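Task: complex structure prediction.
Instruction: return structure tokens for all chains below.
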Amino acid sequence: MLFPAELKYTKSHEWVKMEDGVAVIGISDFAQDALGDVVFVNLPSEGDDTTAGEAFGDVESVKAVSDLVCPVSGTVCAVNEELLDEPEKLNKAPYEAWLIKVENIGDTEELLDAAAYEAFCAQEG
Amino acid sequence: MGSYIPSTPAQRQEMLQAIGLSSFRELYGDVPAEMYLDRPLALPSGMSELEAGRAVRAMAAKNRVYDVILRGAGAYDHYIPSIVKYIPAKEEFLTAYTPYQAEMSQGLLQSIFEYQTMICMLTGMDVSNASVYDGATAAAEAAAMCRDRKRRVTLVSATTHPDVINTIRTYCYGTGDELRIVPEKDGKTDPDALREMLTADTASFYVQQPNFHGLFEDAEALGAAVHEAGAMYIMGCNPIALAIMKTPRDCGADIAVGEGQPLGLPLAAGGPYLGYMATTEKHMRKLPGRIVGETTDDEGRRAYVLSLQAREQHIRREKAGSNICSNEALCALTAGLYMAAMGPDGMAQAAKQSMAKAHYLADALCAIDGVKLRYSGAFFHEFVTDMPKTEEVLSALSRAGILGGLSVEGGILWCATEKVTKAALDKTAAIVKEVLAK
Amino acid sequence: MKLIFEKSVPGRHCSLLPACDVPEATLPASLCRDTAPALPEMSETDISRHYTELCQQVHGVNCGFYPLGSCTMKYNPRIDEEMAALEGFTAVHPLAPAADQQGVQEVLDTAKQYLCEIAGMDDMTFQPAAGAHGEFTGVLLIKQYHESRGDHKRTKIIVPDSAHGTNPATAAMCGYQVVNIASGPDGCVDLDALRAVLGEDTAGLMLTNPNTVGIFDHNILEITRLVHEAGGLCYYDGANLNAVMGVVRPGDMGFDCIHMNLHKTFATPHGGGGPGAGAVGCKAFLAPFLPHSATAEEPGHLQVRSFRGNFLVVVRALTYLLTLGREGIPEAAQNAVLNANYLMARLKGTYTPAYDRVCMHEFVLDLSDLKKATGVTALDVSKSLIDEGIHPPTMYFPLIVHEALMLEPTETEGPETLDHAADVLRMLYQKAYDDAEAMHTAPHHMPIGRPDEVKAARHPVVRWQPEE
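Output:
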């Protein structure tokens, strides 16, 4: 299981990468493994506001659905629409398959570094 | 008394012993004594099959069966091919549960997949669900699909069936959303009023085609106005009319729904009927209800399954868009069977003949002094006449074995289908003439 | 097998309609569709064979044992079908004058009399078309009641975590916030958990009793009393009524309204998923809020579908009720409970019941240990049952039991069927140790093996398209 060191993580298993004041958000390798085969992802639209700690979409497997929790408050500036056609990318390459990009960042959830997140997952698993 | 329990009294005693109990009362040990029913139900004794059949037949005999039905208003007396009555009575179709176990339900799943395809063909849409309860709930579910946090107002044309309006209103009441009625003008949706009522919080607009008065709406123009305001466009279409009428897709609808009863289901005092619901690929994941999808099995063979289940209440719980689980599967099977038996040509014939007979009746009635069409617009198989003595007219027709149209304020809403003969229509006109001449 | 469209032959048709005997009326060109729908073109023989082929790939209650928990798959008597097919019922227009529908009214009135007595309720509507639709209707009764009293602070509906998904979905459709409460270790309502969430904002509680693990909640009077004390109302989800009809009445348990699944408890067939009927009963004080048709005489009411509901389903249920009568109704419940306990006893010692005690009409097996020991899951056992001609039990429900299989034999099975099913289940338990692989890939003798559900959901194909 991969925990890239350059990323930050939430306890709800999203990853965040900061790029010039824009937060790129995805789900972790641990999350995709727990979900099983992802069949669809519901994403917000560009221009929608997000709130730290609240759901911005959800991800579906055949027999389950899980909320995607936004680590930051802000405005959605990009949506990875490729995932609508190829949700399997979330399973194959969770750290490449970003979900949304958020700008105008305000509040931020408590974020873990890779080592702390790996330890957190070890407890959960 | 009747019973469908195979075990004999002796076997029941043996079974009780096998679980270490001596009486049925002990099976209900958790039931507090103060509520355990220690008296017989205040109901008649049970009956043999012969007696029960006799009792229910006696009730059926108290209903009037008309030779000729000229009443529609949401329930239509079309011809039902004989095979359409018999095949759904096959016990496998009749007694199975929802096909969650795909390996032992391929026949059901395939029949639903075929039904979905036929509904898509009729409506021009990309995806249909496996049915909902009826046309009114299909409309209400479609309106609910369109609402979100920003757009919470549902607009419905005043020319819609009152049951449909009231059902949409009830679903809106549930979620605390608003329904507004778009007024009519000359029997059709007033397009100017619609444009004024479309605002940034409008979720959708619903129009019935042909409408409650039988008239064709200017569906494309209405749709264009709705889309200009960024709202969704829902059309409720008569499925027989769709055999010849421009599809909701071509009229710009985002969602097509309707009452499926005309597709081979009897009038049956109001049900069971079925609601069909279809939409474009864009909105597929918001469509409520069961949907059958094609896939392959572990050996690569074509297979059908209940798919996209993550939309549904058993997975999404309070976040599901709808709570529907049981639908009208057997009615959907019947509708698919009806469309196969009629074929494209038979469906078109049913539509054309219904329309021709309604126009023939309208002409015959309007030739009578005191009778005139209420609206001038083009109509399908229903129309409203303004006329005096409506109750006397309907009574006289009833005495002649004809169920006349539905009494509406100051007039009658008539309907004709392919089942009605020219002779019956001539007789109807003659009776009306006679009553009005008195 | 081929789809009906793949059997279509251009130009082929059935001879059904005569030539038109009146002049043609023309549809304005702007209203015409571009091309005819590509519906199949078939002879009657083709159609008969096609649907026969389809029905041979369906397992109905007529084919064999169907112990699908919480679905009450009892035998559906043929006389009920015969009655529902009488022309005196099928040919009645829903808007025919009342004088022409006296028999329809008698069916509805008689069914109401029977069902109100069974439920311990005072009034009833047959408009809801299914169980979930009945829930929606029932919770709307609760909503209207509070609003009629000017009590607008009640925003929450309490639902146990073991509930069917329809309960929370229904509450949300009625604009309520859902408060899930944890069940106790026996699957019953935890009274402390209930007390903790009750308050001025409680609109009501939705509950099945027996609950979703097949146990009668012996605290039921205390539960309904607590809810009433807080000003809320109690809704009885009739999904499990078959265990107790004629033995104990929801009205006597303290419930204010109820839906009954005529297609479960009262033997009307499921039809592959519907039509059902969700008759909703209530105490007299809620009767003013029952739904009506806008085309009926009483305007100003809510309405949950057109006309008066799935009438022919009520005809079937009434025929069944008349047949059973006051003796047969409790007898059916008692034997449903007996059969469940007997089957559970036959399986004990091999399988582990999730709750080892007297059950009601259904029980839950917990296959966690088998999975740990052999890797064989509840799903594998279910799929293996298919090869044995037995419909699988409900799998993975309720969610509070892991590797759950929920069995509901119903009263219409004799001990021979139950013995056979127990033998097969025990054989499969042993097979899990001997040949787990065969069970992971079951079924082996059906028209298809396990379908790829991931593929179906990722890249949906939901209609047939002609090849280009």
